[in-house]
Design goal:
This protein is mainly alpha-helical and 253 residues long. It has seven helices and four strands, in the order H-H-H-E-E-H-E-E-H-H-H. Among the domains are: 11-103, no CATH class; 105-180.
């Protein structure tokens, strides 16, 4: 274990030790002067390797001088959770009194609930006294309404009283080192399954229609040869020459 020589216990641990002693001996005086006188012994044991919670349970009693028995501080079960905090300005090496320690947030809230809701229970009790008197003095026409008011106040007071009792029990369990039953523990909220992201709607495309193949157009007709010039009236010699040529062709055949 790392040496603690020259070091001092953390203020948080000292506040837990004082809290334990204050619960065991509620009438004991544990102011700054008393703690300062015990502090050298606490530091000595802590530097030897003891935790402050172990030191809190080492006290013994020997009332008759012969029989040694464990003191109430050793018998009392230590809280499972931290119950107190040191003063804001506390530093290692500087003792402080039990009247200077603070409640942790959970304990402070429970105490505030017990006190605040308990005051509401008392206030409803005062209203009930007036409501009972109203029932006795109410005329028959309004007596039913007065009685309903009494029942409503009784139900409300009972609900508030249960809140106070539950808070007191929770605080007592914490101080006694008892864990709350499983049925009273906060249930872990199961993570809801992730909702799958909506898939984008697929657009349905119309089937493609095959485009008709283009029929090759017929090549353009060649230009018509120019019409021969209109023949004018032929001469007799020309006609005679053409006839002579035709007869000569027949003779060859």
């Amino acid at each position: 274990m790392k040496s603690r020589e020259g070091q001092y216990p953390a203020p948080e641990a000292l506040s837990e030790l004082l809290y334990h002693w204050m619960k065991v001996w509620p009438d004991a005086k544990l102011d700054r002067a008393v703690v300062a006188s015990l502090y050298p012994y606490i530091v000595e044991k802590w530097r030897e390797g003891w935790s402050l919670l172990q030191i809190a349970q080492t006290a013994c009693s020997c009332d008759d001088g012969r029989n040694i028995k464990a003191s109430p501080a050793a018998i009392r079960k230590l809280p499972v959770r931290r119950m107190t905090l040191p003063p804001v300005e506390a530093k290692p090496g500087s003792p402080f009194g039990g009247d200077e320690i603070r409640d942790v947030e959970t304990v402070a809230k429970l105490k505030q609930k017990i006190e605040g809701v308990g005051y509401e229970v008392e206030s409803i009790g005062s209203l009930l006294k007036a409501a009972y008197l109203a029932v006795k003095t109410a005329p028959p026409a309004t007596r039913d309404r007065a009685e309903r008011t009494v029942q409503q106040l009784l139900a409300k007071q009972e609900a508030k009283r249960k809140i106070v009792e539950e808070a007191q029990k929770r605080l007592a369990d914490m101080e006694a080192g008892r864990r709350p039953p499983k049925t009273e523990r906060k249930a872990k909220v199961a993570a809801a399954p992730a909702t799958p992201a909506a898939q984008p709607e697929m657009k349905t495309r119309a089937p493609r229609t095959a485009k008709p193949k283009a029929v090759p157009s017929a090549p353009p007709a060649p230009p018509a040869p120019p019409a021969p010039p209109a023949a004018g009236p032929r001469s007799d010699d020309a006609v005679e020459d053409e006839l002579t040529a035709m007869f000569a062709e027949d003779d060859k055949q």
